[in-house]
Design brief:
The chain is an alpha/beta fold. Among the domains are: 7-57 and 275-300; 175-236, no CATH class. The chain has helices at 7-19, 25-33, 39-52, 55-58, 63-69, 127-137, 154-163, 173-183, 190-201, 206-213, 221-233, 240-245, 253-267, 276-290, 295-300, and strands spanning 75-87, 90-101, 119-124, 145-150, 168-171. A 5-stranded mixed beta sheet has the order 3-2-1-4-5, with helices on both faces. α1 (7-19) packs across α3, α10 runs antiparallel to α11 and α13 packs across α14.
Length: 308
C-alpha cells in the first residue's frame, strides 16, 4: 500500500482523527487495538484521505434519501447557514447545508414513518462554490415537496428563490422573535409587548407587527424603518399559521445544531487554528462522517492502486 501502516489501521486512524484531535488518537489506538502509533501518522492519513475524497460522491444523496426525493407526498427540508472557523488567514465562514426528510406523520393525513438521517454539504469560502454541491444533494427537479427554513440572509433568499421557485420558503420564526426582542430590550413592558407580537406572527398577522414597530418611539426612525422593511420584505415567508397547520417546522434549529455537531465539535476547540488546505480536508471528512458516507473513505483504501 506504499505505507507501513495497514489499510485497516489507516481507516481507524482516519475515523478517530475525524472525531478528535490528532494528539489524542495514539492513546485511543493503543487502548483499543494495542498498536503503537503517533499523531503524525494520523495527521498524514487524514490529510491524504480528506484530499482524495470524491467530491461528487460526497455531495450525492444516499440511496435512502434519493428514494425519498422521488416521493411526491414526502417533505424534504433544506437548511443553509454560515459557520465561522479560525484559520491562519483569520476567521473565515464555512457555508453549511443540511438536508433531511420529514417523518410522514408530521404531514397532515399521511401515515407515520421513520425519517432519513440528515446529509450535509459544506464549503469554505464564497457561496458560489457552495451552491452546486447543495443542488447536487437536493436536486431542484426532485418530486418531493421541498421546504426551506432560513434566517433571511439576502444571498440565501435570492439563490433559493431562483433555484427552487416551487418550494415552500419559510423565514425562521425564532430569528424574527429575536429581532423583535432586541427592539424592546430594556423596556418595562418588553415581555408583554413581545408576547403580543408573537401571537400576531403565529396567526398570519405580521402586518400588525409592522404597525406596532412604528409606534416604538425609543427607537430611531432609521431603526424602525430597517426592522419594518425586514418584515415587509419577508411577509410571504411568514405565514406561520399556515405552515403549522400543514405540520411543517417553522424554526431552523436543525442547522443551528449542525454548526456544533458537524464542524465546531471537532474544528473549533480551544486554541485551534487551521491552514486553509487542512481546514478543507477536515471539513470533507466531517461531512462524510456525519452524512453516513464514511464508506467513501474506506473505499479509497480498498482499491489496488491505493498508496495512502
Amino acid at each position: 500500500m506504499g505505507c507501513r501502516t495497514s489499510p485497516y489501521l489507516q481507516e481507524k486512524l482516519a475515523l478517530l482523527g475525524t472525531l478528535t484531535v490528532y494528539q489524542q488518537v495514539p492513546v485511543l489506538v493503543k487502548s483499543l487495538l494495542g498498536v503503537v502509533t503517533n499523531s503524525s501518522q494520523t495527521y498524514r492519513v487524514c490529510q491524504t484521505l480528506g484530499d482524495a475524497l470524491p467530491a461528487e460522491a460526497l455531495t450525492m444523496a444516499s440511496p435512502p434519501l434519493a428514494q425519498q426525493l422521488t416521493q411526491p407526498q414526502g417533505v424534504i427540508y433544506g437548511m443553509v447557514d454560515g459557520s465561522m472557523l479560525l484559520t491562519d488567514a483569520g476567521w473565515q465562514e464555512v457555508k453549511l447545508g443540511r438536508v433531511f426528510a420529514a417523518p410522514l406523520h408530521q404531514v397532515k393525513g399521511l401515515p407515520a414513518t421513520q425519517s432519513a438521517a440528515s446529509e450535509y454539504v459544506a464549503h469554505r469560502g464564497h457561496y458560489k462554490g457552495f451552491m452546486p454541491d447543495f443542488e447536487r444533494l437536493l436536486p431542484a427537479q426532485s418530486q418531493a415537496r421541498k421546504v426551506f427554513i432560513t434566517d433571511g440572509a439576502e444571498w440565501i433568499s435570492q439563490w433559493l428563490s431562483t433555484s427552487y421557485p416551487s418550494a415552500t420558503h419559510i423565514l425562521d420564526y425564532y430569528h424574527v422573535v429575536e429581532k423583535l426582542a432586541w427592539a424592546v430590550k430594556g423596556l418595562p413592558t418588553a415581555r408583554n409587548w413581545l408576547a403580543r407580537q408573537q401571537e400576531h406572527l403565529l396567526t398570519n398577522e405580521s402586518e400588525r407587527v409592522e404597525q406596532n414597530i412604528t409606534r416604538l418611539r425609543h427607537l430611531s426612525a432609521d431603526e424602525r424603518r430597517k426592522l419594518v422593511g425586514y418584515l415587509r420584505t419577508n411577509r410571504h415567508r411568514m405565514r406561520y399559521q399556515d405552515y403549522r397547520e400543514k405540520g411543517l417546522m417553522i424554526g431552523s434549529g436543525p442547522i443551528e445544531a449542525a454548526h456544533r455537531t458537524v464542524l465546531q465539535v471537532r474544528m473549533k476547540r480551544s486554541g485551534q487554528r487551521w491552514v486553509n488546505a487542512g481546514c478543507d480536508r477536515m471539513i470533507r471528512l466531517r461531512v462524510a462522517y456525519k452524512s453516513g458516507k464514511f464508506d467513501l473513505v474506506s473505499g479509497l483504501l480498498k482499491t489496488p492502486q491505493a498508496k495512502f
